[in-house]
Design goal:
The chain is of the alpha+beta class. Among the domains are: 204 residues, Cytochrome Bc1 Complex, Chain A, domain 1, CATH 3.30.830; 203 residues, Cytochrome Bc1 Complex, Chain A, domain 1, CATH 3.30.830; 212 residues, Metalloenzyme, LuxS/M16 peptidase-like (Cytochrome Bc1 Complex, Chain A, domain 1, 2-Layer Sandwich), CATH 3.30.830.10. It is 43% helix and 18% strand. The strands form five sheets. The chain has a six-stranded mixed β-sheet, with helices on both faces. Strand 4 and strand 5 form a beta hairpin. The longest helix is centred in the first third of the chain and has 20 residues. It starts with a helix and ends in an 8-residue tail after the last strand.
């Protein structure tokens, strides 16, 4: 557990996330008349589309200013036709605001700056008289959309969402319109929201480390040396004129790409895309950053502060390949020989032998900067120097070619398998296409790069390893205990900008209504009895749920046994152990190599009511994979040393979790509020209990308890269901599955008075605030279907998205938070008599906390009412039902889940039938009847010294907790 945690942490801090994959389906590449690139990928497996616009403009095109990131926010504010009741009148105010921001950027004297800010606030209040907040997001929802989002990187900005494929025409109209004439409305509040986003990142563990590591590596004159979000100094001096110039230069069709994947006809859609996106001005394709980082010379060292005691962390940064370099795939294989998902790499072996806590080799690649990275985390109190020496010994083996032909072939095959897997779904494929398009590559070029993996030779791998790891020139990044000082940003002294026309419709929206009407039919809902999934018996209490695979030659298999951590907390430790143990004839590394020879991945995990074993690999190797799994299950050997190390890792991971930042602690506190002593962390084995475990009892737990529990097997692949069932019966011991395991479900807690749970997080810039309310139901057996639908609809209206009450009132109008949302949770089907709950959430700067909590509390008592927002909330609920239709991989597991819960009907069907006829009057009635009079329980993580506790006590009794109170002793 701890090793994986630290590997992930090191990767996140030092290498980012890899999004490399291969698309096995056809992509049609074309160009509109204005020069906009279009990639089309038909996939009719789900009733949805994924649409994305990629703008090849990121932080490197505006170093340190954050302008590219500002546009990620501004592009949701509407245009000269969306989000306004009278743009001509509004523009007078907006032009004056732009002038004042130019003055602000040139002014250094504090008192004069304050006067300018107040004048900007006055002008913003005037402009708000014409604004319709969040109309763009509301229209996206109205026309089938969900998952609306955007992201800014160093090299590009992307805008995307999923939508019901029947709404493709309005989607194209809306998303092209937003790119033609975006308007900087409600800008003052959005600027404060960006501050909150910066604060949130700074409070997380290592929040400043990635930036500082990258800055040290790239060099101070390199545009990659500055954070994407921009510096605090630039955030304080936004220049709208510079932003407009940025838009005019980079937001042109010749610098954009459009991705469309999903359920559509490519031939039919092209004229529509030309009609809509073809309207965007072509412009001149801008010049981007050219050249590479300067070559490193010699060895230099930089200290990076992390508040992690006792454990050393070190990373070595080398010049590395870009994704477009000819040797990037050979280097990927080289790092795979050191680290891989099967755990058979040369560095993996050192961790398996407990010679280091974490060792890693990887590549970080931007469009114009590449870094090869070696990371070292020694054992607690162990020698960093010795761990680094061991790392270098393994790296030198790859450089010297000291690896077998078999290992080379297996790593190449595993890489190809993972690339195939990454593009199986519409969403996953969209992310990969987005990355390739942002790099200025054709899809054919990308596919050729992936295909080249098969032909990579030993000599090419050695050459790549020597070139990037063997130069002798690198930057040593070493952990120093401590924290970086945080920029102080005071709460602005301006009045909330509350637009006068919330929930109204612009002339543009009325035109769309006239053109597209009010609805496109019912959503597609999974039927628990769907013939797409076969159900076949495997044993007394074991059933196969088998579905097809229309995409590739990979199978996936999940064995879900009914014994989970609620019944036996030792199951969590068992899941951790299964990836670290061998058998009576295969040591752990031999077993890992056996899995890799088959090209099959193996994993195990626990959950409250299940123990799950997963296999994934090539269909041709299913039978030998099952035979190897049977060998492991029957002849597993748990060594005392391995068990002790796993228990120690788990204890250390728990200690580190409290250092991960206030957001991590907040999540655990929420579970404590909801379930009390039955919260998941309270039911886990304590470190003391884990250390007392014996190898024999863990083996017995697997063979006498888990394998005798009821089991549901989910399979997706090319093989016939009957053939799969016969193979499973022959290879695995399903005859032992005789014991039914009732699901253990704990009720949500009800509170008879207001209470505040508070965890002090010293030095935190932000405060995380949660609210918890319950609904006991309207029948003796709990909530009726009608009541559930009203709860869901009210929850969506109040806190479910960018058009919700919380988002508008907390973020948009007052800029108190970067995120403000809420969600309802219904009682488990096993306990329908239990209450349902609603949990609201926001995170805010400490000096805004009191105001934010006051507003949030008042909204529960007196909620703004908008008929248009009510219709949007209803459509949001319906969109999620349709757009979350399961993939072919998910479908067998979904049907198995219905079986486990005893559901012959999909609850989404009842929800849809109820919610489709509800309106704002039902939302208001639920608010007044249930929410307003409910006791509110608050839970908070923040710096106690920055909060007026006497005022906080007016909301209820304060109960102070420490992180250690949130887990078992």
């Amino acid at each position: 557990m701890l090793k994986r945690t630290l590997l992930f942490l090191t990767a996140a801090l030092l290498t980012g996330v890899s999004l490399v994959a291969q698309n096995p389906l056809q992509v049609r590449e074309t160009t509109l008349s204005n020069g906009m690139k279009v990639w089309l990928n038909e996939d009719h497996s789900q009733p949805k589309c994924y649409g994305a616009v990629v703008v090849r403009a990121g932080a490197v095109d505006c170093p340190d200013t954050g302008i590219a990131h500002y546009f990620e926010h501004i592009m949701f504010k509407g245009t000269d036709r969306i989000g306004t009741v009278d743009y001509a009148a509004e523009k007078v105010w907006l032009d004056s605001i732009e002038t004042m921001y130019s003055r602000l950027a040139e002014t250094k004297e504090p008192d004069e700056r304050q006067l300018i800010q107040k004048e900007i606030n006055r002008l913003s209040l005037g402009a708000a008289d014409y604004a319709i907040p969040n109309e763009f997001t509301a229209l996206i929802s109205q026309y089938g959309g969900s998952g609306l989002n955007a992201g800014t990187s160093y090299d590009f900005t992307v805008y995307y969402n999923t939508f019901d494929s029947r709404y493709l025409h309005p989607w194209a109209v809306l998303n092209s319109e937003r790119l033609i004439r975006p308007v900087f409305r409600l800008f003052q509040g959005e600027l404060e929201t960006v501050y909150e986003e910066k604060n949130m990142g700074s409070d997380q563990l290592g929040g400043e480390v990635l930036f500082k590591a990258l800055a040290a590596f790239a060099g101070e004159d390199n545009p990659y040396a500055f954070p994407v979000i921009g510096s605090t100094e630039h955030l304080k001096n936004p220049d709208q004129a510079a932003m407009k110039a940025f838009f005019e230069k980079y937001y042109v069709a010749s610098n954009m790409g459009l991705l469309l994947l999903g359920d559509f006809d490519a031939d039919a859609v092209l004229p529509l895309l030309e009609e809509t996106f073809g309207r965007i001005p072509q412009g001149v394709e801008p010049q981007h950053v050219e050249g590479r980082e300067k070559p490193l010379e010699g060895v230099s060292e930089v200290r990076l502060k992390l508040p992690i005691p006792l454990i050393g962390v070190e990373a070595l940064g080398f010049n590395g390949p870009l994704e477009t370099d000819p040797d990037v795939r050979a280097f990927e294989v080289a790092t795979g020989l050191l680290n891989n998902s099967a755990g058979t790499g040369l560095l993996d072996s050192l961790m398996t032998d407990h010679k280091a806590m974490a060792l890693m080799a990887t590549n970080l690649s931007f469009n114009h900067l590449g870094a090869a990275v070696l990371a070292v985390v020694p054992n607690p109190l162990g020698s960093l120097k010795k761990a680094e020496k061991r790392l270098w010994e393994q790296v030198d083996r790859v450089i010297a070619g000291d690896f077998s032909d078999e290992a080379l072939a297996q790593v190449k095959r595993d890489i190809r398998r993972d690339l195939d897997k990454a593009v199986e779904t519409i969403d996953g494929r969209g992310e990969v296409m987005m990355m390739a398009l942002s790099q200025g590559r054709s899809w054919e070029d990308y596919l050729a790069s992936v295909a080249s993996i098969d032909a990579i030779t030993r000599e090419e791998v050695m050459a790549a390893a020597k070139k990037y790891f063997g130069s002798g020139n690198y930057l040593r990044l070493r952990k120093q205990f401590g924290n970086y000082p945080k920029d102080e940003v005071a709460k602005p002294d301006f009045k909330p900008v509350v637009p006068a026309h919330r929930g109204e419709a612009s002339e543009f929206a009325r035109e769309m209504e006239a053109q597209f009407g009010g609805g496109f039919g019912d959503p597609k809902i999974v039927d628990p009895a769907t013939p797409e999934v076969a159900r076949l018996p495997l044993g007394p209490k074991a059933t196969l749920f088998a579905g097809g695979n229309p995409v590739n030659e990979l199978f996936e298999l999940e064995l879900v046994y009914g014994l989970g951590t609620e019944a036996d907390p030792r199951v969590e430790m068992l899941a951790e152990l299964l990836g670290q143990v061998g058998t009576d004839s295969l040591k752990v590394q031999e077993l890992q190599r056996a899995w890799q020879r088959l090209g099959t991945s193996f994993s195990a995990e626990s959950s409250p009511n299940a123990f799950t074993i997963r296999l994934a690999g090539y269909e041709s190797q299913l039978q030998p994979s099952l035979a190897l799994l049977r060998h492991l299950l029957d002849r597993v050997v748990v060594e005392k040393k391995t068990l002790s190390e796993t228990a120690s890792d788990a204890a250390t991971a728990d200690k580190l979790s409290s250092l991960s930042g206030p957001q991590e602690v907040f999540g655990v506190l929420m579970q404590k509020v909801m379930f009390g002593e039955n919260a998941p962390k309270m039911l886990r084995l304590s470190p003391k209990e884990a250390r007392k475990l014996k190898p024999a009892e863990m083996t017995d737990l697997l063979q006498k308890d888990v394998l005798h529990s009821e089991c549901r097997v989910s399979y997706s692949g090319r093989m016939d269901a009957e053939e799969v069932a016969a193979l499973l019966r022959a290879e695995l011991p399903f005859e032992r599955c005789t014991e039914a395991r009732p699901r253990i479900v704990h009720p949500y807690l009800s509170y008879d008075k207001p209470v505040i749970y508070f965890v002090d997080s010293k030095g935190a810039r932000q405060v995380f605030l949660g609210s918890y309310l319950t609904d006991a139901g309207d029948t003796p057996k709990g909530l009726s279907e009608a009541r559930k639908a009203r709860l869901r609809l009210w929850a969506q209206y109040f806190g479910g998205g960018m058009s919700s009450v919380l988002f508008d009132e907390i973020r948009e109008y007052r800029a108190f938070a970067y995120s403000a949302f809420g969600a309802a949770r219904e009682p488990d089907v096993a306990r329908p008599e239990d209450p349902a709950v609603f949990v609201g959430y926001l995170s805010t700067q400490s000096d805004k906390f009191e105001s934010a909590m006051t507003v949030m509390d008042s909204l529960y008592r007196d909620m703004p009412v908008s008929a248009v927002a009510g219709r949007v909330a209803r459509q949001d609920v319906i969109n999620r039902i349709n757009n979350n239709y399961p993939t072919f991989r998910e479908l067998p597991g979904v049907i198995a889940g219905f079986d486990r819960l005893g559901q012959s009907e999909n609850p989404d069907r009842a929800l849809y039938e109820q919610v489709k006829d509800l309106g704002i009057e039902d939302i208001v009635a639920y608010q007044k009847e249930v929410i307003a009079p409910a006791n509110r329980v608050w839970f908070i993580v923040g710096d106690k010294k920055k909060i007026d506790l006497s005022k906080l006590a007016s909301y209820g009794e304060i109960v102070y907790l420490k992180p250690k109170d949130l887990q078992k002793k």
